[in-house]
Amino acid sequence: MPTTNHITTKWLGKMAFESTNPSGLNLTIDAGPDVGGEGKGYRPKALMLSSLAGCSGLDVASLIKKMKLEVDDFQIDTIANLTDEHPKFYDAVTVEYHFHGSNLDEKKLQRAVDLSVERYCGVMEMFRQFAKIEIKTIFHHK
């Protein structure tokens, strides 16, 4: 039996929607005031970038734990180019993995990033279908 996700997204009025999540934590999606929204929710395209970073970040965090690596701080910056013409979509995305610490094992951390990017992250694979992906790994030694 194939795995499926079923998300229900309900209109709340004006430009706002509430979307369910399998975690049980719902989220609000809303447009900005410039197009009739109130800016009280997440923007759909930006959420895609959060999904990309979150998917890969979960992989990397799991591998950091599994490899017993020392990392003080870890963040992912996702910078995307939006096309000019409608329907506007991301045609190029840069994903920057920033690792901070005084005892960073660069080789193993790079391996963790590579495993996520090349093998584990399904959202990364989805993005590859429509965007050029650039990966950067940056080490900040304390």
UniProtKB/TrEMBL annotation:
<dbReference type="InterPro" id="IPR003718">
    <property type="entry name" value="OsmC/Ohr_fam"/>
</dbReference>
<dbReference type="Pfam" id="PF02566">
    <property type="entry name" value="OsmC"/>
</dbReference>
<protein>
    <submittedName>
        <fullName>Putative redox protein</fullName>
    </submittedName>
</protein>
<dbReference type="InterPro" id="IPR036102">
    <property type="entry name" value="OsmC/Ohrsf"/>
</dbReference>
<dbReference type="InterPro" id="IPR015946">
    <property type="entry name" value="KH_dom-like_a/b"/>
</dbReference>
